[in-house]
């Protein structure tokens, strides 16, 4: 709740207060203060830590809890403290009656650690000490008088202000020292008068020491030095008021509003005819301000007719002659009423009981309110605040009597509000209690519910609080809850609160939806029932990792294939749904030089570069093969994954010719070696594999006479005929490897 404050003058508070009301589930009894309001007084000169008073709250019977106290409002500047254990209130800082004369504290009691509190109001009056002397506006002043002025003429008005209150602020005036007995002073008004003529005296100037003394004990005093000079000019006319002595003003005018124009005429000329205006009495609270030159009287504070309806100001008109002549007038100001007071009910809560099904016109209760305004503004009219069922009652607008207008039904309406009229109003609540019969069945808020829960809920988790209302009271309105359909052991309902809870772990992959009915019944003998259909959708959680169909795959590919040639497609399945079940494929390891790539969505493994069987030795686990580790990941958070191994064999293509270990072989033999002797052996290698690498040797030229034979498998050259150096000194054989 947000609470604002407004004083009697209409000024709102600078800030609002936030009030938090906690509604407790169980009835807890707080500690109760012995009094709802305490009143103490303390002098403003009390030293710090002075005891002001003690408050006491009594704990409930048989309670073992300790009562503690704290100040919860009314002390924004921290001037007070309270003993939390004994309730003793002390001063914490120096006080000042002139700054704040009344302090209203709200003290709160708490019983142990209970969340229940009680409060009381503590009113502290800061009594005044005479610590401020009267103060003149100036320490010295001068005035000129005429030597012809008669005795009793007012020549000067001394004004001193004292900030204290009561007798401490009441000022009385006296002439402390004077050179002549020609002057006297009114002790209350401070008006300096002539006691005799000064025409015959040669003295032209008089010095008066005027003392302003308050009525405190001990009293305080201040001095004003007044110099009075004679003037031979004659001031023989006093001012005369020409403005009315009556005025009126509305109570809701702003500060500074012009209330009255005071006018006084003086037929003298020059300074003798210059008139100034002053308020002598009736303005002790400084409600008004009078311009001493123009005579304009304005408000200095907000007015409130309910506080003060009439002001009587004694006004003096004083000319500037020497001595000054004056005239006084009593100005009566009447404050006119404005409808600014709200009617207030004598009770904020009225309670009454009436039987349902009674005849119209049955008397219920009489309410009463008061209004501090006057005249028509204080006349009240009563009416029922519009609301559900308000047409079933009639309110006498003058007397405030409430009667029924129709037969009542307790379940239709229980609370009615009454407000005042016309332009300002007040409301009060009227609680009508109607005796109940079991004529209503419990009703669920909705006939069907559909909720979604995650499959990772712990057993015993509450998923929904069902609520059924029964407009009856007592046992007739107490609702019991139950389930009437099979929930496969997954759910149960609290029979009192209607809270549905899980009774086992849920698994969307096993069952993704449950549908069952809940029943609400009251405790009467007739057991009227109400049902609602519950649909519980199990939301997927990423609790299943993708799983390859095989943990080990084998595939082969011919060397020399162009890039992006498909080799094999792998599959991984994920039992989850949505993003949790979407699988993405990647190569985790074994893919040196990015030889292969995989389609992340379809799982198709393909070549990324041209393969060469003869250059795969650095990737081999076995001859001419690649072993890749594939990763299948889902898109859940966090992501789950699994791996599989793929062995890719690169198949050989006969793309390499045999290569001899040397392009030429030179052999020297003696002509006498016998037939069958081993001459030499040639050797060639083929980078291909298998049959493509099996080499056959043959002599294609240079052996026309058949001197040599060549083993086609081993490449061994042997002598077949006798050599004759004189016949042939050199043979050149051309051998082919295929």
Structure, described:
It is found in: Membrane. By secondary structure, the chain is mostly beta strands. It folds into 7 domains: 26-127, Immunoglobulin-like; 140-230, Cadherins (Immunoglobulin-like), CATH 2.60.40.60; 240-336, Cadherins (Immunoglobulin-like), CATH 2.60.40; 344-435, Cadherins (Immunoglobulin-like); 443-539, Cadherins (Immunoglobulin-like), CATH 2.60.40; 547-651, Sandwich (Immunoglobulin-like); 655-737, Sandwich (Immunoglobulin-like), CATH 2.60.40. The chain has a 4-stranded mixed β-sheet with strand order 4-11-10-7, with no helix packed on it. A hairpin with a 5-residue loop joins strand 42 (491-493) and strand 43 (499-502). 23% of the residues are buried. Mean pLDDT is 87; it is low at 418-423 and 617-623.
What is the element layout, followed by pairings?
Blueprint: E1 2-3, E2 17-18, E3 32-33, E4 37-43, E5 51-54, E6 57-58, E7 67-73, E8 80-82, E9 88-91, E10 102-111, E11 117-127, E12 140-146, E13 154-157, E14 171-178, E15 183-185, E16 191-194, E17 205-214, E18 221-231, E19 240-241, E20 246-250, E21 258-261, E22 264-265, E23 275-281, E24 288-290, E25 296-299, E26 310-319, E27 326-336, E28 344-345, E29 349-353, E30 363-366, E31 369-370, E32 381-384, E33 393-395, E34 401-404, E35 415-421, E36 427-433, E37 443-444, E38 448-454, E39 462-465, E40 468-469, E41 479-483, E42 491-493, E43 499-502, E44 513-522, E45 529-539, E46 547-548, E47 552-558, E48 566-569, E49 572-573, E50 583-589, E51 596-598, E52 604-607, E53 625-634, E54 641-651, E55 659-660, E56 678-681, E57 684-685, E58 697-701, E59 708-710, E60 716-719, E61 734-737
Parallel strand pairs: 4-11, 12-18, 20-27, 29-36, 38-45, 47-54
Antiparallel strand pairs: 1-2, 3-6, 5-9, 7-10, 8-9, 10-11, 13-16, 14-17, 15-16, 17-18, 19-22, 21-25, 23-26, 24-25, 26-27, 28-31, 30-34, 32-35, 33-34, 35-36, 37-40, 39-43, 41-44, 42-43, 44-45, 46-49, 48-52, 50-53, 51-52, 53-54, 55-57, 56-60, 58-61, 59-60
